[in-house]
Amino acid sequence: MNYTLHQLQVFLKISETQSITKAAEQLHLTQPAVSIQLKNFQAQFDVPLTEIVGRKLYITAFGKEMAVAAEKILNEAYNINYRTLSYKGFLAGSLKISIVSTGKYVMPYFLASFLNKHNGIELFMDVTNKARVIESLENNEVDFSLVSVLPAQIQIEKIELMQNKLFLVGNTSRKFGKKIYDKSIFEELPLIYREEGSGTRYVMEKFIERNRLPVKKKMELATNEAVKQAVIAGLGFSIMPLIGIKNELNSGRLQIIPVKGFPVKSVWSLVWLKGKRFSPAAEAYLKYLRHEKHQIIASQFKWYEDY
User: What domains appear along the chain, each with residue ranges and CATH number?
Assistant: First the structure.
């Protein structure tokens, strides 16, 4: 056997995504480079690791066993590197975080300074939907998860980071006055929703239900980015997190429509399983957050706090 750690890494990513295209994107490689690594890895086994049915790639039963083995080998390789750095006096290890899609506008700012200070820590951050975030947390696959709606079915501990504010927004083709509108405005504004299961959708629907808003649902889309582009194009209006529309507000492509009762507020929280045993890297990061979060908010999110 002459397989390399790189081949193991590539095959593991292919098995996770079941797609050469997605694996290439996540590994920041070209599709031909990933295909070559898979071919070279497969050449060392007489049993197929993958198969193509129609135009879709599937991992065989043998391939799934090899993916489990690959993950174990890679984890041990990472541990060797971490132990080497630790003996040199550096904080080292991996930090695994899953975040909901809108969290990509928040989490990097709470990570940057810590990771720059500790070069021996390797970050694995999965930006995904709410269901997958909760699944990864429940299965203890991550150290932390960033959510705006706390999971009810899991015993967790948390540290609150900052408010999540949602406003009614539209494009700028229609002029709205500076007055505060009442809920009757929803009778004439077709709303674009996020898909079922998203944190934004949950907060939005709870607010609508609680205030008995007379909404006109026009469509639902899978991501906040898709909703944002639909609103900019004039397909409707939406209740959206402020954190993801800063540039569009500044450029005049979106506007906040002032309505009584807005903004709708929830809280961005970093959560972890109750009783979880932290690695030195995760423990150091939690200590860092508790000490630095207010300074990070003041320096990076002053514009946000002004709304």
Answer: 5-70 (1.10.10.10), 91-162+267-305 (3.40.190.10), 163-266 (3.40.190.10)
